Amino acid sequence: MKRTLITQAPAKINIGLWVKGKRADGYHELASLMQTISLSDTIAIKETREDGLRIECDHPAVPTGPENLVYKSAMLLLQRLEIAPRLLIQIEKRIPVAAGLAGGSTDAAAVMVALACVASPCRIDGNEPGHRIGRPFRHAWRACPGDGTW
What pTM, to 2 d.p., does this model score? Predict the structure, then answer.
């Protein structure tokens, strides 16, 4: 039986953002305070019979290929877990694209959490490619020191 998992990816707003200075790696040291809001994208993760990972989105500005953060995150986790991808991920966009509300980042984080919960406990550390995706949080504020990774 093929399974479908549906999850929400909440938007966030920056309550405060402080740029402190440039680091040796070229990033700026940041301090920020973020808060989730009720606006969220809905993501359906569906098992398929076909090999590979497919992304579909109802917003034409969202890429659906390997450049998509959801695609990158899902592939990273599946590779770590040594699971061959056979998934269709459908994104229902409600968070405006490129609005600074972390729509792509929270979509990617929500997919990683959902896949990890289904497949196996797994930790992706902050040194992995795409580590700036961050950790999802639900209806809470969060203080974020460093390079903006939440």
Answer: 0.76
